Amino acid sequence: MGLVQGFLSTMDLEFQFASGISQLAPQEWDALTDGSPLLSHAFLSTLEQTGCVGEGTGWQPFPLLIHRDGLLVGALPLYLKSHSYGEYVFDWAWADAYQRNNLAYYPKMLAAIPFSPITSARLLSHDAQVQAVMLQMLEQQMQQQRLSSAHVLFPDDASAEVLRKAGWIERSGVQFRWENENYKDFEAFLSQLSHDKRKKIRQERRKVSEAGVSCKKLRGAEVTAEQWDFFYRCYANTYRQHHSTPYLTPEFFQLLGQRMPDNTLLVIAEQAGEPIAATFNLYSESILYGRYWGATKFVSGLHFELCYYQAQEFCIEQNIRYFEGGAQGEHKLARGFLPRPTLSFHRIAHPEFETAIKSFVEYEAKGIGVYHNELEERAPFKNP
């Protein structure tokens, strides 16, 4: 689909569905965001420039840009999708239903951060009228191009409220998040857990230590090219173990570390002086996002050490309030994470399918609510 642009004379707004954000000035885009590193121009443009999104990936950048008097006043991180991989909000059954009725579900429009189940702003504007216009443009484009649907994944509360008022189908989910309650150190955090959870974590960490494993935390500027190469081997190995293919390229991580050195954390585990595992995280002043992990050999408890305990220690050291553990993983409960709700919003072009999907989502929400309550009953902290 080529470049689409136009002018809304009633509001003096120019709109454009562009081919990417790489040509935008970083400060233009970033001035509209909520500060999330995964929503930054650096992160999204690096995905484009290293071939992680674009031709041949099923993720075609199609950002909606709104200008007034030459100034960017609204933006939407938007993609044309030819599949549903890398989204973490699953609509494969919807696509299958379309196919069984000889209808095309793909391409669809998707407002999201690729490969990242991260809640943050989506309707990027400081003007409520501009936010409403962006939704109108999205729906208009869906109808004009005869696309099956438009989806907004993991919006923050402000964006969600605009979508809710516009009547989009609302879908619920659950993720896990750890909160740093101004802990003095890791032991102070452990002291708040129930006895059995505290004992289990200490046992896991002891096994790693007794195996002769040590860990070091490296920020972006401290990571060497060799260390990035090692991390990528670990990252790719995780995908191979799950009979899958990595979404991201070696160049992506190397370039991101250069562009976002103050937001990048690599944790490397070593045994007998040799690296054996690594994790990749992104962080801001208030939130750390756990992203990718991999290992070249098995050590009992090492996954939990690198993916959770090292990151929790970093949050405590840097006074970072939240650690987003991402999708899935009830085992996170035992490591101090608590469930929290997530949202996505959907507009379906076909009236009958829209009615059917709305009914499905409403039924699904009841089960999500029960699941969330069950998780809360299994909270790992000591009873007050």
Overview features:
Aminopeptidase; 11-stranded mixed beta sheet; 4-stranded antiparallel beta sheet; alpha+beta; 37% helix; 384 residues
Task: Report what the structure shows.
This protein is 37% helix and 26% strand. The protein folds into 2 domains: 4-174 and 341-377, Aminopeptidase (3-Layer(aba) Sandwich); 181-320, Aminopeptidase. The N and C termini lie far apart (57 Å). With 384 residues, the chain is of the alpha+beta class. Helix 2 (41-49) packs antiparallel against helix 9. Helix 4 (128-144) links the parallel strand 7 (108-111) and strand 8 (149-153). Strands 3-6-7-8-15-9-14-13-12-11-10 form an 11-stranded mixed β-sheet. A 4-stranded antiparallel β-sheet has the order 1-2-4-5. The mean pLDDT is 93. It is built from 11 helices and 15 strands.
Helices and strands in order, then pairings?
Elements: E1 4-8, E2 13-17, H1 26-30, H2 41-49, E3 59-61, E4 64-68, E5 71-76, E6 78-81, H3 92-100, E7 108-111, H4 128-144, E8 149-153, H5 157-165, E9 169-179, H6 186-190, H7 195-210, E10 213-219, H8 225-241, H9 250-259, E11 264-271, E12 274-283, E13 287-295, H10 302-318, E14 322-327, E15 338-348, H11 351-377
Which secondary-structure class do the elements indicate? alpha+beta
H and E order: EEHHEEEEHEHEHEHHEHHEEEHEEH
Strand order of the largest sheet: 3-6-7-8-15-9-14-13-12-11-10
Within CATH, the superfamily of the largest domain carries the name Gcn5-related N-acetyltransferase (GNAT)
